[in-house]
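Readers outside the structure-tokenisation community will struggle with the description of the input data as it stands. I therefore recommend that a typical entry be quoted early in the introduction. An entry of this sort, consisting of the sequence and the corresponding backbone structure tokens, reads as follows:
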Amino acid sequence: MKNRTSKDNTIVRKKVQTRRFNADIRYGLNSDQVNEYFENGWSNEPVEPPSKTVPEIIKSNLFTYFNLVFAVLAALLILAGSFRNLTFLPVILANLFIGIIQEIRAKNTLDKLSVLNAPKALVVREGRQFSIPAEELVLDDIVIFKAGNQICADAIVVDGEVSVNESLLTGESDEISKKPGDELMSGSFIVSGECYARLDKVGEDSYISKLTLEAKAMNSEEQSEMIRVLDKLVGVVGILIIPIGLLLFGQQFFFSGASFSKSITSMVAAVIGMIPEGLYLLASVALVVSVMRLASKKVLVHDMKCIETLARVNVLCVDKTGTITENTMEVNGEIPMDGYDSQSMAPLKQIISDFASAMSSDNITMKAMKDYFNKPSGRKAVSVSPFSSQFKYSGAAFEDGSYVLGAPEFVLREDYDNYREQIEQYSSEGYRVLVFGIYDGVIDGKALTGKVTPLGLVFLSNPIRKEAPETFKYFENQGVEIKVISGDNPVTVSQVALQAGIANADNYIDASTLTTDEAIEDAVLRYTVFGRVTPDQKRKFVRALKKAGRTVAMTGDGVNDVLALKDADCSVAMASGSDAAAQASQLVLLDSNFACMPSVVMEGRRVVNNIERSASLFLVKNIFSFLLSLFSVCFMINYPLEPSQISLISMFTIGVPAFFLALQPNKNIIQGHFLSNVLIKALPAGITDFLVVGALVVFGQVFEVGETDISTACTMLLAIVGFVILYNISKPMNALRWCVWGGCIVGLLGCSIYLGDLFAMRGMSTKCIMLFVVFAIITEPALRYSTILIEKIGRKIVGWIEKRRKAKIIK
């Protein structure tokens, strides 16, 4: 985009202003004007690219703190002439290239999907209407906005009337009526109506662009529990390795009298052992692979963290229309009521047909009404009030009177009880019931104040999705509680939910009776089905559930779902719904098929559970190296391992098996917290490694065993403990896991025998072999009893933390 100064912008506005007064809104811009705007950079290009470029991906993977540490360590080893101990570099380079390649592949996949889901706009150019990507719009374009559309650039209404929700910008959920001359702010969305609008500010000049960077910064701070914990672990390790490394080098070189080369190699071995070099990468790659797997199932992931969050969800809030039922509606019939006088009035179907003809097809209800009531008399409406989700009615004024169509409770108000039995008879059969009546007041789109005389009832229904019962049964079996939140009559919603197989769907409440936050907080925990819910209440329901300690997912497809989607822990939208809902959500079901939700949950569980397993493998090495480094510094003992030996152990007990484990199927329900789960698994093995290796070093000095022999024996002891813990976390074993486990043992032994010089694996003396056998036998009971002890302590600590957390929630 060409850069423009403020002065340039002023000149542009003056030139365009003249054209506005002379332009025909039904014709729009011509191709020459569009090209001129593009050439001058006056297009609606986003303020920043939707995804990282390939150079940015390479840079973010290459220039990291730990890569700098590895580069310094490599330089020190070269300076010390210890080229053999550079064996960790191929592993680091392999990790680097894998990370870059996977991220580029994911970028390409998501970019293709994003094109399918990109915001589009209906623009008028040269007298024709085109649906084009929003970024191809230019200044002064005439755009047609309808219900559900998100306003993609600042605009001025030039024809028509719409109701707009600007809550994403102002925080106010009230709908605002916009007429010719009024401004439409980018980032808001159309609730009802239709209008022609001229784009006034596009691209970086638009209101939403000024908020984009701030919004992106806020979202970047929101991390999943798993990534947040890994960030903290990596951060702590990054701080500790420098002082420990310096202390270890100083102790060995200045106090123990070791050579410069030996001091460097020992220090490097300890530091490498403390760095979880592949853990963060493994987690990132696993998430990237999950994004690609979901993409193959037509699920677009806007935010990778939601994959883990959805797997932890224990409450799923769904709307009736578009989730339980198809996103279509049909009229099943109408009946007259007491207020209709067939002798003096036109046929009821004709009166409703005149009403439907006057309304815009801006929602599925009115489309169904127009299809069914399709024989108008030709009467023209004097004024029209589009449907308001706040007041639950639409209205039209004719010369002979004003008519309204809407939810019985909102239209009839105090007279509702007079017709309750008749209305709920049809609601209990699963129909959505609307009342059509004549109004003695002025239709202005605001709350009805005059009396409505009901003329008839209209019955509509949404067909239930075929896959809905099986999907909801799956969530019930997984312990996920379903909350059905709808704007329809609670009796109707309850009946539909029962047909869809939702547990406790007969436990319903009318949300219009929930007038306080306290009432909402109580109701969300007691009821399953909520009817007559306003958009602002949906948001309060989500917040109340989160306040109660629940992890909440919200599905939706309409503009009235956006507020709740933004506040939910995980938000899922149907691509067939509104642009606003799709853009506000973390996951978009491109096929609008709710049946794929179980596979998304399974993908999240696979990632989290498998990364927990892999993380415990990495932390065993980190805990051991940290403890042994401190032991060496405190007791003036030379660090017994070399970098090449650490690389050998890391490769076959951590790196290779962790990669395969991270991609294995895993449907287990996620329990506990990531950090506590990982530490409880890793601490016993890390402490066992430290105890047996530390004891072996001490006994080796007492029995005057050579340092080379001790170094080899320590490596083999670490291998034994590593394979035991690998076996334990791989359970239940299957053919692939047995192959991985056995293959890694064979690989380590093969490298030790045939590449012994490369990995500093030399033959041991008889005295060393005897010590090795003794401590090898000790490893099993040491690991077993330390596991029992740490699990008991861990359970007590976790239980205490949970009690404090629940007590805090109650307060």
Observations:
- Confidence is low (pLDDT under 50) at residues 1-22, 213-222.
- The longest helix spans residues 766-810.
- Residues 6-42+118-219 form a domain with the Calcium-transporting ATPase, cytoplasmic transduction domain A fold (CATH 2.70.150.10).
